[in-house]
């Protein structure tokens, strides 16, 4: 749970800076957020969470 909250905060921060630097339009940001929201409700959510947790654990062990 803590990993997913941290990733949400990280991706939100990246999205904020992309919008601020005008590298990403508001429409694209809406599509990216919608895609993430709908992806979380599919069967792909669990493997993505496991992959993110494994990568973070591997980085922590370095």
Would you give an account of this structure?
By secondary structure, this protein is mostly helical. The chain contains three helices and no strands. The protein has helices at about 1-20, 25-40, 45-60.
List keywords for this structure.
0% strand, single chain, mainly alpha, 62 residues
Overall radius of gyration: 13 Å
Q: Give the N-to-C terminal Cα separation.
A: 22 Å
Number of helices: 3
Major sheet attributes = none
- Beta strands, count: 0
- Globular, elongated, flat, extended or rod-shaped: what is the shape? flat
Strand content: under 5%
Helix content, binned percent: over 70%
Give the helix/strand class. Answer: mainly alpha
Topology pattern, helix = H, strand = E:
HHH
| Mean residue pLDDT | 77
Low-pLDDT windows of residues: none
Reconstruct the topology from this structure.
Layout: H1 2-20, H2 26-40, H3 45-61
Briefly characterize the structure:
With 62 residues, the protein is mainly α. The chain is 82% helix and 0% strand.
């Amino acid at each position: 749970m803590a990993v997913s909250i941290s990733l949400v905060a990280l991706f939100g921060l990246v999205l904020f800076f992309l919008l601020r630097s005008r590298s990403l339009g508001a429409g694209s940001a809406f599509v990216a957020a919608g895609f993430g929201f709908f992806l979380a409700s599919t069967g792909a959510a669990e493997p993505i969470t496991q992959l993110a947790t494994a990568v973070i654990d591997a980085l922590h062990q370095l």
